[in-house]
Amino acid sequence: MATNKPKMKIKKNDLVQVITGRSQDKGGDKGKQGKVIAVYPESQRVLVEGVNRITKHTRAGAGGSASGGIEVVEAPIHVSNVAIVDPEDNKPTRVRIREEQVERDGRTKTVRTRVSARTGKDL
Asked: Is residue 10 part of a domain?
């Protein structure tokens, strides 16, 4: 039985900005911009470069290949807490979907394009 994965408008390699949370002057990530490293549609979360960094204590590997210690890594953040940055004016925007009918080889095909709600430009 096939399960439907939730759709997400934010994709890998998008530039996003954190729009909620603690402000930067209080040690938070609100207002920071970063590139999306990974997307987890099952839990509606995204991994953003340089945002939501946590310290992780790791144990040394048995073969000696991985050294133990304390490392700082990014943790996933909920997709509702970030917004895509509009390439036109570097401000956060919502995403709309524009559908176009394209004819190829006598067939009509629907092409969906992500569009900025602020400026109407393609993302």
From this structure: no
Q: What is the DSSP letter of 16?
A: E
Between residues 5 and 76, which one has the greater pLDDT?
Answer: 76
**DSSP, residue by residue, the chain:** -PPPPPP-S--TT-EEEE-SSSBGGGT--BT-EEEEEEEETTTTEEEETTSSEEEEEEPPPTTSSSPPEEEEEE--EEGGGEEEEPTTTS-EE-EEEEEEEEEETTEEEEEEEEEETTT--B-
What is the residue range of 36's domain?
15-85
Considering the domain architecture, whether residues 99 and 77 belong to the same structural domain is answered as no
7 pLDDT above the threshold of 90: no
Report the CATH number that the domain containing residue 20 is assigned in CATH: 2.30.30.30
